[in-house]
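Invent a record, attention on tokens:
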Amino acid sequence: MSAPDADLIAALTTAMAGDAAVMAVLGDPVRLFAERSRSAAWPHASWGRSETLARDADDVTLIEHRLTLEIWCRDSDAHAITGQLREALRGLDPVLPEPWTLVLLAPAYSDVFATRDRRVKRGIIRLRAVMGRVG
């Protein structure tokens, strides 16, 4: 049995890889990696920090995840790209493995930063996701 946070990231990665709005920004195939790739075409994204919190209730197991999607841009408008991905994430409906159900998926925060290489910008989107399991 795999960990719920790994299941969620895998489901989000699969959903993003098949989403036209994400492909419009990150290419086809979608340039989304488990960790930063220094050799990928621009722009590309990678999964960053992940935080998991138990939010159980009576007879329901709830897990809240806070995931960071990092967007790497060079010589392009990092704010626009981060905004387009944030909007695309709002419409995603990832399929989770049994017995989990996605209760909530919402971009909670986004920002863009400069890097040491002035041509490269780093955008981040913090996602809040809640997974539930009855029983």
